[in-house]
Amino acid sequence: MNDKTKRPRLTRRQALTAMTVTGVAAIPFGAQAQPAAMRKLLAGANVCVLAPQQIAGPFYFDPKLERVDITEKRAGVPLGLLLQVVAADDCTPLKAARVDVWHADALGYYSGYPGQSDAHNISTEGGHFLRGTQFSDEAGLAKFTTIYPGWYRGRTAHIHLKVFLDDKTVLTAQLYFPDALSEYLYKNVAPYNTRARERDTVNATDHVVQTSDSKHLSFCSIKEEPDRYLASLIVGVDRHATVGASRGPGGPPPDGMGPPRAASGGARQLVPGIVKAK
Hints:
By secondary structure, this protein is α/β, with parallel strands linked by helices. It has five helices and eleven strands. The protein has helices spanning 3-6, 12-18, 35-39, 179-188, 207-212, and strands at 46-49, 65-66, 78-87, 98-102, 131-135, 141-147, 158-164, 170-176, 221-225, 228-237, 275-276. It starts with a helix and ends with a strand.
């Protein structure tokens, strides 16, 4: 019996029980919030106050698809993503904020780029699975239907997020997940567990987590539902912040290791086109 088979496996219930919850009380969020605004916040969600121009990469592009369901029949564990966009100064929900998300599939592939897979020999050019846009509603909520993200070399499980408040303001973040749940899914559920390689990075060893979110403020709250997991996060944004333009989509170095290239450059207008998905 090898080491892999000797390793004890968590049940899904044990994985959920083992999760730690981010301490929301420690976050300097909404200090001037009114009680009425606080009552509108998403119950049970963690709170993340975004700063402009966090690490943007890798592999962002705008597929011009406004849609809730971004799976495109990609295999994986169903995941609902519920994000509430609010003003960081007073907790007021922000209506009509554009929210873009994108992430890797169960095998670690991003859509739209060459060099995917552990061997970097798969091209997904022309695809746009696991990408999409929603606009926040009256309560600041943006909802997505997707799958639990897979890992790729040098990174822990995560989902990328951009929030556009107008044509010149964009805030960027990465959303993270409890290692206990990721470990359970990657070891026990297909197609996550069909990969020949063992994942090499967890939250505690991920360079992006350690440099940009060492306090784990952008870790989603996870709830188990009958047919999916539900990940939620309150995203507090600075309405007065502006961000410079990126010179490119951002991405990892050729070997897949090390931090993605950060956005750089001067200010520009960002007026992405949107086409509603049929």
